Amino acid sequence: MMSATAMPPDRLRRAAFAAGALVLGLAAGASAMDTAPSTDLPDLSAARAKIYAEEYEAAAAELGALTATVRHADLYNLRAFALRKLKRYDEAARWYKEALFYDPTHRPALAYQGELFLAIGDLAHARNNLKLLRLLCHPNGCEELRRLEAALVAAGVDPPPS
């Protein structure tokens, strides 16, 4: 696979446009997908409390049991977060992907997935998530954008220009 830096500029522009169009198209069509609305999401406060207490193994197990019957981006994002904190990166990647399938504009999933990309050394994808967050959080920014920018800086990576 050709890296973005080795890709000819016109092809890179087309690829970036296609990726942006895909995100916007998925976001526009998200209501047509077979997704569980937020009202169908069970109370996740016990799992969140485990995450805040850094009991990631217990949180991942509890959230994993829910994934058998509940389909929701918030659930998948929390599960991925717990797995990422356990350094189970392949599993975390799968659940971030699921979260973004159900809600391509899920800002927490984009930010945390960006942190996962940093953890595994995939700087290009971390920067891409930052660019998507800049689009989603325009014009005033958002917590998720600031979090991923800070993570990039902490990792010694210059965020791409705005």
TrEMBL record:
<feature type="repeat" description="TPR">
    <location>
        <begin position="73"/>
        <end position="106"/>
    </location>
</feature>
<dbReference type="InterPro" id="IPR019734">
    <property type="entry name" value="TPR_rpt"/>
</dbReference>
<keyword id="KW-0677">Repeat</keyword>
<keyword id="KW-0802">TPR repeat</keyword>
<feature type="signal peptide">
    <location>
        <begin position="1"/>
        <end position="32"/>
    </location>
</feature>
<dbReference type="InterPro" id="IPR013105">
    <property type="entry name" value="TPR_2"/>
</dbReference>
<keyword id="KW-0732">Signal</keyword>
<dbReference type="Pfam" id="PF07719">
    <property type="entry name" value="TPR_2"/>
</dbReference>
<dbReference type="InterPro" id="IPR011990">
    <property type="entry name" value="TPR-like_helical_dom_sf"/>
</dbReference>
<protein>
    <submittedName>
        <fullName>Tetratricopeptide TPR_2 repeat protein</fullName>
    </submittedName>
</protein>
